[in-house]
Every structure is written in C-alpha cells, then in structure tokens.
Design brief:
By secondary structure, the chain is α/β, with parallel strands linked by helices. Helix content is 40%, strand content 15%. Strands 3-2-4-5-7-6-12 form a 7-stranded mixed beta sheet, with helices on both faces.
Length: 371
C-alpha cells in the first residue's frame, strides 16, 4: 500500500517538476551565499549530516533506536536512515505499518522505560495522526509526574511546503508545536545545524520536535572540522547570527535577500533561529536594539505564527528602540494551492523580503510584484 502511495506522490510531483526545479534553484542561490560567509572546511549535504548524526548517536548509545515507515529496508523515504539497518539490525531500525498513532505511542512508551527513540514521520503533516501522543503523552508527562518521568524522544521528518503536493502535505508545524509547554522545537537550516541540533535532540532528556526542510536535503553546505567531530553538539535554544549588519534585523534564512539589500546600501543582520521553542529572545532583541528595525520571515500561516511571537517579544522588550513598524512575511492565509503559479504566491519569496526591508528602511522598492 505504501508503495502505491509513493507512486502516486511521484506521479503528482512529476506534474510539478518545473516548480521543484525552480525552488531548488532558489535554494541553491541562498546556499551559495551562505558558503561565502561560512568558515567551513568541507562540504556536506543536509541528508548526509542527518544520517551521520543518527549513525554516531546510535553507535555511542545502545538505547537509541529509529522507527517509522520505511526507515529500514527501503533506507528511509528520503534516505536519511540509509545504511543503518545493515549496521544496527531490525531491533534498532524498526519498519512500522502506516499507523502514526501506533508507532508514536510505542515510541513514547519506550522512552518512559529509558530508551531513546527517534521517530520519523514521512512528513509532519502525518504527525496529526499522532498529535495526542506527542502532546498529551510526551510533552506533559514530566510536569504531571512532578519531574519523575523523563521522555527522551525525538519526532523528526520534513516539515512545511515542498513542491506540488497540495494543501494537505504543505503545512508548517513550527507554530503548532512551538506553542506547547514541555516540547522543544528545533528547525535546522544548514548541514552544521542538522548535525549539531539532531545530536542535541537525541541526547536531551525531554521530547523534541525536529522540523526539517525536504527541499534542503540534497543541498550542500560547508561544515567545519569541529562539526565533523562525533562529540559535536549545538546548544538548544540558541540562535545563530548568520550575517552581521547594522540597518535591519531579518529572522529566518534569507541571506540572498541580504545580498540584494547590500547593493542598495542596506546592511542586513540575518538571524538563523535554529530553535523555535525555546526561542532565543535575547539574541533577537539585542540585534533589534542595534539595527532598530525588524522583518520576520516564515512559511507558516500569519495568524498566531512564529513571526507574531517574535514581534510581541520585541515590542515588550525593545519597543523604544524601533525606528519603524515591524514587518511580518509569512505564508498566505489560505490552504496551499496545487497550481504552480498560485503555490509560488502562497509562500515568501526573496523579493517579498527585499520589499519589506526597503519599506522599514524607508527606501523605494525597485522589485516588481511576483507573478
């Protein structure tokens, strides 16, 4: 049955191959600019970064195991678990039926008993089938047990829009899970993010929702020698300033926008959030107090979104430093369209970020509206 579903998905994606190609070209452009600012010594794809992090953590700790649909025999729907079944066997790389509620519940139960499961959702859209276990069974148990029960579990998989997969397979769950006490929610961008944050998530004593980007799996980023060490781990709850600037703060992954703005004499500081819960409010506010302007970028819906939370934090802590209204760039407030031209309009593009940045800097925009 799963093979049939995959065939249908492949057929659907072939109809939108041009959309996917365009999105990948855009992401490669952003990635190439990222390389310009990185001190990395080796290139690694996000896919390989995730795979190597899983491999090293499983080798270091026998309580770590992976479970999900097609993680074993098929090597993972996106090949994140490639080679792990041969190395660790079916007891630690567990293929499951198509029943997210079932295997998420098994994962939480095993975490209650001291194991460290890494549960893969083929897409986080399917996590809605398991949301009761994620929130009521995993997130709340430590509090409800007065600290007696830890739930060291990771829920990971692709999140947000891909290309041509329609409304039911394109949602961003950052704000959904980011609003839940007891969860930690991580959003890696680069290969170094993927390695360091996944290792941190697996080692953490609490449940972690690990939201990946499908379109970035095949993209290569520079990785430092430090990040290649098996002991490498990034702190949860700490953002990264990808590029320093003095005129405007942009939260998200938008260095290409920063390059375009630089040509206009606008120096943009770009913050890679890395963590949605906990949110690094200190880094964001410190940046805004320096630049006096803020543009937030996200792919999720605008209402009750991550950008709204960031805006609230800045208004509460740094309102007196703002020289312009905060701009929020988000996905359109509609279910994701299937048609390629409408889909592009439903999610933030580089030109949307540039226009917003020029508005808060009181500069006239020279970029035409996207079609």
């Amino acid at each position: 049955m799963l093979g049939t579903i995959r065939q249908k998905a492949v057929a659907a994606r072939s109809l939108s191959s041009q959309v996917l190609e365009n999105d990948l070209m855009r992401l490669r452009s952003v990635a190439s600019v990222m390389r310009h600012y990185s001190a990395g010594t080796k290139e690694m794809t996000v896919r390989d970064a995730l795979n190597s992090a899983l491999d090293e953590e499983m080798a270091a700790d026998p309580s770590v195991f992976v479970m999900g649909e097609e993680v074993g025999e098929y090597q993972g729907a996106y090949k994140i678990t490639k080679g792990l079944l041969d190395k660790y066997g079916p007891e630690r790389v567990v293929d499951t039926p198509i029943t997210e509620a079932g295997f998420a519940g098994i994962g939480v139960g095993s975490a209650y008993h001291g194991l460290r499961p890494v549960v893969e959702f083929m897409t986080f859209n399917f996590s809605m089938q398991a949301i009761d276990h994620i929130i009521n069974s995993a997130a709340k148990s430590n509090y409800m047990s007065a600290g007696q029960i830890n739930v060291p579990i990771v829920f990971r998989g692709p999140n947000g829009p891909a290309a041509g997969v329609g409304a039911q397979h394109s949602q961003c769950y950052g704000a959904w899970y980011g609003s839940v006490p007891g969860l930690k929610v991580l959003v890696p961008y680069s290969s170094e993010d993927a390695r360091g944050l996944l290792k941190a998530a697996i080692r953490d004593p609490d449940p972690v929702v690990f939201l990946e980007n499908e379109l970035l799996y095949g993209e290569s980023f520079p990785v430092s020698a430090e990040a290649l060490n098996s002991s490498f781990c990034l702190p949860i709850g700490k953002a990264k300033i990808e590029r320093e600037g003095k005129d405007i703060t942009i939260t998200a992954f938008s260095k290409m926008a920063a390059e375009i703005l630089e040509k206009d004499g606008i120096s943009a500081e770009v913050i890679n959030l890395r963590s949605i819960r906990p949110l690094d409010r200190a880094t964001i506010n410190a940046s805004v107090r320096k630049t006096n302007r803020l543009v937030t970028v996200e792919e999720g819906f605008p209402q009750h979104g991550i950008g709204a939370e960031i805006c609230a934090s800045v208004v509460e802590d740094s309102f007196g430093y703002l020289d312009a209204p905060v701009e929020r760039i988000a996905g359109a407030d509609v279910p994701t369209p299937y048609a390629a031209n409408l889909e592009r309009m439903a999610f933030p593009q580089i030109e949307d970020i540039v226009r917003a940045a020029r508005r808060v800097c009181y500069r006239k925009s020279s970029i035409a509206a996207s079609a």
